[in-house]
Amino acid sequence: MKVEMKNISKAFFKNQVLDGVDLVIDDATVLALCGENGAGKSTLMKILTGMISKDEGTILIDGIEKNYSHLKEAEKDGLIFIHQELNVIPDMTVEENIFLGKEINKGGILDKKTMRKETAELMERLGVDIDPGATMSKLSVGKQQMVEIAKALHNDVKVLIMDEPTSALTISETQTLFRIIASLKKQGVSIIYISHRMEEIFEICDKVTVLRDGKCIATNNVSDVTVDDVVRMMIGREIGDRYPKRNSHFGETIFEVKHLSSAPYVRDVSFNLREGEILGIAGLMGAGRSETMHTIFGSIKKDEGEIDIEGQTVHIRNPIEAKKHGIAFITEDRKNEGLLLPFSIKFNISVANLKKLSNKLGVLDKNKEKKMTEGAIKDFSIKCSDESQHVESLSGGNQQKVVFAKWVTTDPKILILDEPTRGVDVGAKKEIYDIMNDLTKEGVSIIMISSELPEIIGMSDRVVVLHEGKSVGIVEGSDINEEKIMNLATRGV
Could you give the CA distance from residue 240 to residue 252 in angstroms, rounded to a whole number? Predict the structure, then answer.
């Protein structure tokens, strides 16, 4: 199937989101769709699949003009959109999710035997081992994604749109996904692959189309461009070194964790952190990285172990006590745990600083609040109309910078970052790395969890590697490389 989008334009109120965009997807092609958050990628795909209407332009499917008014119409023609937030029903089984709305009946009775057989055949076609009778909530995110792809195959997919498909996958699940994409391509399926991860684009894609500020900048064969070329087109400028140069001089040990345990995920974790240091936390998904940080922060109960801050043992039973000890925690789920999306930037920053912004009677000082918020917007380069703009209307990168502003204004000594650049475009990533670097220059110590090995290697002064809930090694200097980290992460040795 060949898809052509010509001169597509779309505005929301006075905001021109797309301005005369052209896009072509050829048969059996993997096309990367790149751009900063807010560039118009998702809007363009929603127009293609009938989720929203266009203001101007033409959509041609195999030369025939189409104007889908609903996602189901696009799906009938074989255009399937797998969103970053997977559209599965967690309490239903794999086969029930695949046949939802298309159940097979015999004499008015569900033919479960046939549905299970066809589901098993779909899984075999994908080359994955997933039980058709398994409940979706029991599956990993990676396997849930495979079910979504199986559902697309069941619908006779011709063009598969994938939005940040590897953002929550393990390394092995990512490689399985890449194998499936290659297999689908051989079967004549075209893939539109939306991702901020440059390494993936250059590994699996044939072509790359770059959007910037709602305009199509260029479409190139991947073999004809470099990562720097794509980044330059995305942000309209040279980005320089992806990671800032780190200061190699650190202060005294400010924080120490000794034999921390919290069943079942944290079994024996020990490490220390120096003033002004970025300590990376690496490991495979399920190694207990996030659970360890939640245990330190008091949001998961500690079973055993000791936490020392500036040489004194502290007892942290909840996040309020952690905050009193100078610990801030930016979790991986900014939408559900980090931000109050329907509220303003000002409200989100103020809510973490009420004591600092209130007088002796507990009354909020509006002038202090405004000064703090305006200062944070400036310091963190948050792109917004003003401090009253609702956070839900910001791009992903700017939402993440609001989370940073919210916690950094509490003046933490120790800042825990869990996947600080997940779902953030390359330009905003660089800004976040610079923020982290500047914070360490001011004496803040940072613990950073990341599933992206280049990020761990590029930003960490030392790396603690976890394996099955245990800290199995600390690497530093020239040992901070992919081979050393993965040997520890996979084997624990």
Answer: 32
Give the helix/strand (H/E) hosting 98. Answer: helix 94-98
On the 0-12 / 13-18 / 19+ scale of CB atoms within 10 A, 307 is buried
Residue 46, both tokens: 């929603």
Q: What number is the average pLDDT over the span 149-175?
A: 86
CATH 3.40.50.300 residue window(s) in the chain? 3-235, 253-491
Q: Is 253-491 assigned to CATH 3.40.1440.10?
A: no
53 DSSP 8-state letter: -
> Domain spanning 3-235: which CATH class is it, in words?
alpha beta
Which tokens in the block code for residue 17?
């989101």
Beta-strand runs (E) in 202-311: 207-212, 215-221, 253-262, 266-274, 278-282, 304-309
How high is the pLDDT of residue 431?
A: 87
The pLDDT of residue 88: 86
Confidence band of 33 (pLDDT split at 50, 70, 90): very high
Sheet holding 15-25, edge to edge: 15-25, 3-12, 56-61, 64-65
> In which region does residue 108 sit, left (phi positive, over 0), alpha (psi from -120 to 50) or beta (all else)?
left
Is residue 61 within 8 Å of residue 73, measured between CB atoms? no
